[in-house]
Write a structure and sequence with these properties.
The structure is a single chain. This protein has 11 helices and 5 strands, in the order H-H-H-H-H-H-H-H-E-H-E-E-H-H-E-E. With about 350 residues, the protein is α+β, with helices and mostly antiparallel strands. Among the domains are: about 110 residues, no CATH class; about 110 residues, Heat Shock Protein 90 (2-Layer Sandwich), CATH 3.30.565. The longest helix is centred in the middle third of the chain and has 78 residues.
C-alpha cells in the first residue's frame, strides 16, 4: 500500500489520492485477515476494490498484491473452480472497465497479450504449488498410515508373545501343582521336584512378561532385556515339558544353519505352544519335535502319543490360531490334526524369506 501511495504522487496525469482512494487501497490488504475463513469472499472483495481503484483513475502501483494472495489462498483452500473462473472474468474486466469509465484508452494488442500472459502464469504457478502441496500431504498421510500399520502389527505381535508366555508357563505350573497335591499325602518328600519346577516356570514367566511390559512402557525406543527366543533355546522348553512328565525328543534334519530371526522366533513359539497343548490336553507320555532344514523353508513338526480331541482336530483353540497366524505371517502354512493310529500332529512350513 505504501509503495502505491508513493508511486501515485509521481503520476500527475492520474487522479490524486483522496479518502476514497486510500480506503479502496487499504480494503484489499485488510480483507486478507479473513482469507483463511472466507477465501472466496475475500477474493471477490479484493477483485472489487482493486478494479474500483483502477477504474476511478488513481495512480498505478503494486495494487494487485492483495489480489494475488487472495487468489492463491482460495486455490489452496479447495475453492479451485471459483478461483480459476475469476481469471477470464478479471481479464475482461481489468481491460475494459477502465475504458468504459473513461480513465484509459482501449488496450492495444501488446497490453491484451501481456495481461493474458500474466494471468496464465499466475494460474499455472498456483496449480504447480497446489499439486506439490497435495503430493506432500498424500506422502504424509501414507507415512502416517504406515506408522499406524506397523504399530498395529507390533501390538498383535506383543499379544501373541503374551499369550504364548502366559499359556505355556501357567499350563506347566497347573500340571505341576496337580502333581504336588497328589503327592502331598502319598509321599511328601516327592513333592520337592514338582514345587521346584513350579518355581522355575513362574520365574521364567515373570522374566519374559517383564521384558514384554518394558517394551510396552518404553515404546519403539525401548530395547528388550533378553534376546528374542530362537531354536537354540528349545532346550529350556524341553526341560519344562519334562518337568511336567512329558518325554520330549528333538530331531533335526538337513543342513542346520542360522535362519532369519522372524523364522527362528516363529518356529520356537510354534514348538512351545504345541508342547503346551500336549501337556494340557493330550494326556500324552511322549512327544517328538522334528526340525527339517530345507533349501527354501523350515518344516516344524510336533507329534505326540496322546489322544486327539475333536476341538483340537478342528483347530478351534486360540493356541492353534496363534500358531497358524505366525506361519501365515511368514507366507507359510500350518496344519494340525490327529495322526494316523493315535496321537496328534502339528506341522508348519515356514519359508526362509521370512516375509508374506
Amino acid at each position: 500500500m505504501g509503495i502505491t501511495v508513493v508511486a501515485a504522487r509521481h503520476q500527475p496525469e492520474r487522479r490524486d489520492l483522496d479518502v476514497l482512494g486510500l480506503a479502496l487501497l487499504a480494503a484489499g490488504p485488510v480483507a486478507l485477515v479473513w482469507r483463511r475463513r472466507w477465501p472466496v469472499g475475500v477474493l471477490l472483495v479484493t477483485i472489487g476494490t482493486t478494479l474500483a481503484y483502477l477504474s476511478i483513475g488513481y495512480g498505478r502501483g503494486p495494487v494487485f498484491l492483495a489480489l494475488i494472495v487472495a487468489f492463491v489462498t482460495a486455490v489452496m483452500a479447495g475453492r479451485r473452480t471459483v478461483a480459476l473462473a475469476t481469471l477470464p472474468i478479471g481479464y475482461v474486466a481489468f481491460l475494459w472497465v477502465p475504458v468504459l469509465t473513461g480513465v484509459d484508452d482501449a488496450p492495444n494488442l501488446a497490453q491484451a497479450l501481456g495481461l493474458a500472459a500474466w494471468l496464465t502464469a499466475l494460474g499455472a504457478s498456483t496449480e504447480v504449488v497446489r499439486a506439490r502441496r497435495e503430493r506432500a500431504a498424500e506422502a504424509a498421510r501414507t507415512q502416517e498410515e504406515e506408522r499406524r500399520r506397523r504399530a498395529s502389527d507390533e501390538r498383535l505381535r506383543i499379544a501373541r508373545e503374551l499369550h504364548d508366555v502366559v499359556a505355556h508357563h501357567l499350563s506347566l505350573i497347573n500340571v505341576q501343582a496337580g502333581v504336588a497335591l497328589h503327592l502331598l499325602d502319598q509321599g511328601p518328600e516327592q513333592t520337592r521336584s514338582a514345587l521346584t519346577a513350579i518355581r522355575g516356570a513362574s520365574k521364567d514367566a515373570l522374566e519374559e512378561l517383564r521384558g514384554v511390559v518394558d517394551v510396552l512402557r518404553g515404546g519403539e525406543e525401548a530395547a528388550p532385556r533378553t534376546p528374542a527366543p530362537t531354536l537354540g533355546d528349545l532346550a529350556a522348553v524341553v526341560e519344562r515339558a519334562a518337568a511336567a512328565g512329558l518325554d520330549v525328543q528333538v530331531r533335526t534334519g538337513g543342513a542346520v544353519r542360522p535362519l532369519p530371526p522372524a523364522v527362528e522366533r516363529a518356529a520356537y513359539r510354534i514348538v512351545q505352544e504345541a508342547l503346551t497343548n500336549v501337556v494340557r490336553h493330550a494326556g500324552a507320555r511322549a512327544a517328538v519335535v522334528d526340525l527339517a532344514y530345507a533349501d527354501e523353508a523350515l518344516v516344524v513338526q510336533v507329534d505326540d502319543d496322546g489322544r486327539a480331541s475333536a476341538a483340537a482336530s478342528n483347530g478351534t483353540g486360540s493356541g492353534l490360531d496363534g500358531m497358524r497366524e505366525r506361519a501365515v505371517a511368514l507366507g507359510g502354512r500350518l496344519e494340525a490334526g490327529p495322526r494316523p493310529g493315535h496321537g496328534f500332529r502339528v506341522r508348519a512350513e515356514l519359508p526362509l524369506g521370512g516375509h508374506p
